[in-house]
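Sample entry (121 residues):
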Amino acid sequence: MSTTSLPAPPDERDVIRVPRQLGLAAMSILGTRAGAVVEDPAASALYFFVPAGTASAWDVQNTRAVGDGERVPVPPMRRTSGPGPHWRMCPGDDGWYTDPAALSAAIGDAFGPRLGEEFVS
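Predicted structure, serialized as tokens:
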């Protein structure tokens, strides 16, 4: 099982780690607005690539920005299924990045309304 790893976050991008089920729901909400996403079954996580600078301000419940010294599995470009790390969304012509505001909103939507927020006047 051959994968390469990039130090995370590299200079030109940051990475957001999201638990698998939440990440899949967020991807479904984002649709074509999702940038590149790697799934790592061993960690039960999805990794969203976002523009550099996102990590310093990222504060979204049940997710975290990948910190200095951590590594993100980057599978070969054509690996779109397991076993092992694989692309849920390959980098495409639109690039690697998911808009951080859209990702945050999709994660919030995936959780649904919180108690007391169901009825907004």
